[in-house]
Amino acid sequence: MRPEVTGAQPRREPAAGSRTGPRAHNPMDVFHLPALGACVAEARRRLRTLLAARGVEGEVGDDAGLILSELFTNAVRYSDSTRIACALRVTTHLLRLEVADQGRGASEPHAKDAAFDEEGGRGLLLVDALAQTWGVHPCADGHGRVVWAVLSREPRGGQD
């Protein structure tokens, strides 16, 4: 069951360095790319390779690729970063995506009310629709922010 999200605003959670428990047994794969719009496709390609190696494909893999594309694009457009880190953790039932920027933007990610004829502005609403939950927290080193999303490994319809 999805927690209620009012206005598709992100949730906060503790910084990555403060986590303990079962996650320590599921290592996180991380890759870095320049903060360029041209790198969005490369980020998706790397994610698909990592997901396939863990047996995550089909609708769940497609959803993860779409979410990563949105988060990476937002980091490029709004953070004034030169480099972006992408991370993936896969567990038995969930997968977690993280996109870390250098936090040079003026504000935190938030969904906006896009006009009917606007070309953009719906990315975080899409993330909210596809992910079980998502949010933002500061990077562990205090420089930048991490926007994360958690997806179920079970297809949205409950079956393949």
From TrEMBL:
Domain Histidine kinase/HSP90-like ATPase: residue ranges: 34-149
Pfam family, one: HATPase_c_2
Keyword Zinc-finger: no
Keywords: Kinase, Serine/threonine-protein kinase, Transferase
Location of the region described as Disordered in the Swiss-Prot/TrEMBL record: 1-25
InterPro entries reported for this sequence: Anti-sigma-factor_SerPK (IPR050267), HATPase_C_sf (IPR036890), HATPase_dom (IPR003594)
The organism's place on the tree of life at top rank: Bacteria
GO molecular function: protein serine/threonine kinase activity
Protein name, per record: Regulatory protein
